[in-house]
Amino acid sequence: MESAELKAWLRLTLAPGVGNGTARKLLATFGSVQAIFEQSAATLKELGTAKLSQAIAAQPAGLDALLKTTEDWLAAGSDRQIAVLGNTQYPPELLNIEDPPLMLYMLGTQLNRLQDAAYSTASAFTQGQLMLAMVGSRNPTPQGEVSARQFAKAFAEAGVCVVSGMALGVDGAAHEGALQGGGNTIAVVGTGLDRVYPKKHLDLAHRIAQQGLIISEFPLGTPPLTANFPKRNRIISGLSQGVLVVEAALKSGSLITARLANEQGKDVFAIPGSIHSPQSRGCHALIKQGAKLVETAQDVLEELRIQVPTAHNPTGSSSDEPLHSSDDVYEDDEDEGASPPQADNSFMAALGYDVVSLDALQARTGMATPALQAQLLGLELDGHVMRLPGGLFQRVSRT
């Protein structure tokens, strides 16, 4: 993209009071972004108001500095690119959403492999690879975080690109799982691509850029503003063929993503959880509203008609076996197999899957406090139990 054209796009996105809808109207009317700024005030007034005319006529403060910053960022490597509405690098999936972004900043070595990819009905992002969004709580339960990682790893191994928002909690676990599965993953962020938020995910961001893509509609230098995170959710759902909600409270940005996916005609999936967990209520609400209840990654793959070779089992268990039981060979049924180290079937049954206090567990088992604490410590060291703040414990399923 030539410098003059890039400057015009930046100017349009920075113009005060000119939203995406108005910008698209201007582009459709005048044919190109540079032509917009060649119009007279009288012509612009015919399309809107004097305020619009003034906004287009005035050069935004900091435009020249942003242009230099953006050009320097683009020149720093072949792993970065800007796609604008209407050009061949723009993902066609986003053309079908209600409010497609005007500009997309993209960072990732995957861009090097896609320079010659041809657009048809499939995005050059992944050369036709199916994309699935995974979203959920920033403060998941230990089981929710494990589930997010397991499901994402299974999807990646099955050839599905995992799309998420690189937030703390479920998002981060989903990206981690996809990377562990050796697949592509796309992070849609709410800041400029010269910033990483949260800072805790700096290493994760570098690994995503090495194996997938990080994208943003926000100019370089944009800080983590609260309003930008719900806004980017439409891109997460728009890129994807479906959305899986792992854990979510009733008032959650994940439910916004699910609602947008539903409005876009996409499949919505939800993992059920404990009826006592606030982090499961959003998923339960979605299921009541028609979202597909899933227990394994295979449930999602089958719904999306993705064929997985028999020799490759993406969940680590049979296709009709729930995820939580694939490694839990210590149920009450005697045929289930051996118990985990230092625990018997009755103790694990008493522990259950809900968060439980030491006092409640003692009441269920009748064990003396020292023996109970020793039992829990052994299970914690073996990775079967997670210790939570407030003296609480939760059983953790593993595949």
Short description:
This protein has helices spanning 3-14, 20-30, 33-36, 41-47, 50-57, 63-75, 110-113, 142-157, 170-180, 202-211, 228-239, 253-263, 278-288, 297-303, 345-351, 358-365, 369-381; strands at 80-84, 103-107, 131-135, 161-164, 185-188, 213-216, 242-245, 267-270, 292-293, 356-357, 385-388, 392-395. It has 399 residues and is of the alpha/beta class. The model is unreliable at 115-124 and 310-342 (pLDDT under 50).
Task: Outline the structure in words.
Strands 1-2-6-5-4-3-7-8-9 form a 9-stranded mixed β-sheet, sandwiched between helices. It has a 3-stranded antiparallel β-sheet with strand order 10-12-11. The longest helix has 16 residues, at about 140-155. The two termini are about 45 Å apart. Helix content is about 40%, strand content about 10%. It has helices at about 5-15, 20-30, 35, 40-45, 50-55, 65-75, 110-115, 140-155, 170-180, 200-210, 230-240, 255-265, 280-290, 295-305, 345-350, 360-365, 370-380, and strands spanning about 80-85, 105, 130-135, 160-165, 185-190, 215, 240-245, 265-270, 290-295, 355, 385-390, 390-395. It contains 17 helices and 12 strands. The chain is elongated. Helix 1 (about 5-15) packs across helix 6, helix 4 packs across helix 5 and helix 9 packs across helix 10. It has about 400 residues and is an alpha/beta fold.
